[in-house]
Structure formats: structure tokens, C-alpha cells
Write a structure and sequence with these properties.
The chain has 384 residues and is α/β, with parallel strands linked by helices. The protein folds into 2 domains: 3-207, Rossmann fold, CATH 3.40.50.10330; 224-380. 32% of the residues lie in helices and 24% in strands. The protein has 13 helices and 16 strands. The protein has a 9-stranded mixed sheet with strand order 10-9-8-11-13-15-16-14-12, sandwiched between helices. A 5-stranded parallel sheet has the order 3-2-1-4-5, sandwiched between helices. Helix 3 (78-84) links the parallel strand 2 and strand 3. Helix 10 (283-292) packs parallel to helix 11 (320-326). The chain starts with 9 loop residues before the first strand and ends with a strand.
Length: 384
């Protein structure tokens, strides 16, 4: 085979924010500022590295050859590549330890100068903002979701879905690309129970099937009566001596309103026998309650508007250990029919950071949509 006939090597750039997402299980609503250090001190694992390794291992299975991987060495890329068993070409290292947002910007700029075919970043909306600062909107970029809040439309729906998109590009398949919005919230306001989002720019993102998540949207109509009906139905279904973990969101908050209990709009609260057992609980606190409680445990969540995620976005406090203790049969999903209609037939999504658990939850789940009203809706890990 002549040099002209040699298959082209796909050059992939990697930027890992090693501290993305650590604030989620700690119930800190984000990882910016001092939240990351606080979460690590509480014993929270660095989930960004785990999720990056998952994506790279899946990619290795699809693209054993014809791939070159570039990025900063150490926690920002090299460590994940080593764990995944992929060759890695280091083009620099973080200027500080721990790495900062400026290191993410520097890594993105260095990869752009190198001229890679696609830049993959692992993080949340804060990292997406850093990538926008470093690249602008004319370089192909794909996010592997690892943050607490992922309102932007630049992420694959899971690490494995990200690998599917990258593999398709590396194999020369037809992959559409378009501008997707980067949004982020004010974490300080978020921790005070207020959601204030801003548009920070756009990134050029490859699109393949349903492997890319949508930008989070709020409901376009006030559904107070529907939400009240859902709450009334849930309260009627509640049983004595069962411990309920009620996730974030306005729909789930209405359940606590129906019980005449205070709620944490953006956190996870625990209720048993109509009494609060804890508010705004971290993963560690929820796991402790799981060990203490001898009876059934039920998790109640809602779907993120426009995206469809029921686990893994904004409720990482519901760790795989908590979900396993409750059991898939005790996962209750509440959502209005208009919210389900907004999904356009796309499935509800689970991304708990435990691939085996996520796959086990695939199938159909009952969604409570009103008083004495429910539908069966498909759950998936990939968006297909």
C-alpha cells in the first residue's frame, strides 16, 4: 500500500477537568470555587476521571487502530488514557496543582494550534465555558458529561454515547455538525434555591442520532394544576414505614408541599411517615440513611425538561449505592404529559455513573402524569 493509500489517522484532543462533578454527590450544587475541595475533603471520588476512562475504553473497542490521542499529561488527560490502555501524546501539563479553569483554556488552545480533528472535554457547564473561551465556535468539540449541572447542548448523553460519536467520525462515517448552546447557572444563586442561567456562547458539536443531549429547557406553560394532581397521586401511594428520597425539581417539590413539609427545591430530601428525615442530603448522608432504615426505600425523581434525564443530572446525590438499595422497582418518575411530549419520542435517560446499573434500568418505566393517571415510557442509556 502506498503512502497515498494509507488510511488517515484520526487526531483526537482530550481535555479533562478532574474536579468536575465532585460537588454533586456532596449536595453542593456545583464544583466551582471552594466546593471541589470541600467535596474531596468529605470523601467524594473524582468522577470525571472514571467517566473519561469509560468513554476511552468504549472508544478503544470501536477504534483499535487509526487513532492518535493528544492532551495535557496527568489528571487532565494522560492518567485517563493510561487507565484505558490507549497511547497518549502529551503536549503539556497543568500550570498549577490542582488544575484550574485557566489550565482547561490553555489545553484547548494548545489542541487547536495542533490542529486535531475533534476536541473532547470531560466536565460540566463550567468546563464548557472554559472551552468556549479557549476555542470559540469554529472547532469541532464534544462534551463527555461529568459535571453537576449540564444545561448546555454540547454533551453526549453518556460516556459510551460519546464514544459512539467519536468512533463514527474516526471511521469516516457521515456525522452532522452544528452550533450548540453553552449555558451555565450562577452557583451561588443555585445554592440559595434560585436558578439563574446565562448564555455563554456556542460550540461546533458533532451530532449522531440520539447520542447528543438537548439543551435543558424550562416548561413553556404553567402546569400548576397538573403538578398538584401528580403530588396528590404520589401522596396517596405512599406507605407507612417506607423511606422516600425526593429529588430536585418543581414537580417533586409539590409532593412535599402536599405533605405540608418544607422542601429543598434543588436538593434531595428524605421523608418517612410524613416526617422529614433530612433535607438537602449528600450521597454520604443518603447512604447512611439506607443503612439505618430496615424497610423499603423509594426514590422519586422527575425528568429534566427537553433532555429527559431522570438520573445523573443535578441529582448525583442519588448514588449507585442508594439506587441499588432502593431497587429499580422503587424508582418513581413523575412528569407532566407535556414534559414527555417535549421529548419528541426520545427516551428517558439514566446516567448514574455505574454502567452496569444503568443498563439494568433500561426498558419501560411507569411515569406518574396526574391523579390516577400514568403512562409507560421507555428508559435508555444512549438516547436511542
Amino acid at each position: 500500500m502506498t503512502s497515498e493509500q494509507q488510511p488517515r489517522v484520526f487526531r483526537l484532543g482530550l481535555v479533562v477537568n478532574p474536579y468536575a462533578g465532585v460537588g454533586g454527590p456532596a449536595a453542593l450544587k456545583g464544583s466551582d470555587g471552594g466546593a471541589a475541595a470541600q467535596a474531596l475533603a468529605a470523601g467524594v471520588e473524582q468522577r470525571a476521571l472514571q467517566r473519561c476512562v469509560r468513554a476511552l475504553r468504549a472508544l478503544k473497542q470501536s477504534c483499535a487502530t487509526g487513532l492518535e490521542l493528544f492532551g495535557f499529561d496527568g489528571e487532565m488527560g494522560g492518567d485517563a488514557a493510561a487507565q484505558a490502555g490507549l497511547p497518549f501524546i502529551a503536549i503539556g501539563r497543568a500550570a498549577s496543582d490542582p488544575s484550574t479553569a485557566e489550565d482547561s483554556v490553555s489545553a484547548a488552545k494548545a489542541l487547536r494550534t495542533l490542529g486535531v480533528d475533534l476536541i473532547v472535554f470531560v466536565g460540566g457547564d463550567g468546563t464548557a465555558r472554559d472551552i468556549v473561551r479557549g476555542l470559540g465556535s469554529d472547532v469541532p468539540v464534544l462534551g463527555i458529561p461529568a459535571g453537576v449541572k449540564m444545561h448546555s447542548g454540547v454533551y453526549a448523553v453518556s460516556p459510551e454515547s460519546g464514544a459512539e460519536i467519536i468512533a463514527a467520525m474516526a471511521q469516516g462515517k457521515w456525522v452532522d455538525a452544528g452550533a450548540e448552546e453553552v449555558r451555565d447557572i450562577d452557583e451561588r444563586a443555585f445554592r440559595e434555591g434560585r436558578v439563574s442561567t446565562r448564555h455563554y456562547g456556542e460550540l461546533l458539536v458533532p451530532r449522531l442520532g440520539q447520542f447528543l443531549q438537548a439543551t435543558k429547557v424550562s416548561g413553556r406553560e404553567v402546569e400548576e394544576l397538573v403538578v398538584a394532581d401528580i403530588a396528590a397521586e404520589v401522596v396517596e401511594l405512599m406507605e407507612a414505614d417506607t423511606l422516600y428520597f425526593i429529588g430536585p425539581g418543581t414537580t417533586t417539590a409539590a409532593i412535599l408541599d402536599e405533605l405540608q413539609l418544607a422542601n429543598t427545591l434543588l436538593g434531595v430530601d428524605a421523608v418517612c411517615n410524613n416526617v422529614l428525615r433530612g433535607q438537602d442530603l449528600s450521597a454520604i448522608q443518603l447512604e447512611a440513611l439506607c443503612q439505618e432504615h430496615p424497610g423499603e426505600i423509594v426514590i422519586i425523581v422527575t425528568a429534566i425538561g427537553g433532555q429527559g434525564h431522570i438520573l445523573g443530572r443535578g441529582n448525583q446525590q442519588l448514588s449507585p449505592a442508594v439506587i441499588r438499595r432502593a431497587g429499580p422497582q422503587n424508582l418513581w418518575v413523575v412528569a407532566s404529559k407535556s414534559k414527555l411530549t417535549e421529548l419528541g419520542g426520545r427516551p428517558l435517560l439514566v446516567d448514574s455513573n455505574d454502567r452496569e446499573l444503568d443498563v439494568a434500568m433500561e426498558g419501560y418505566i411507569r411515569v406518574i402524569t396526574g391523579y390516577r393517571d400514568s403512562v409507560l415510557y421507555r428508559v435508555s442509556t444512549s438516547g436511542n
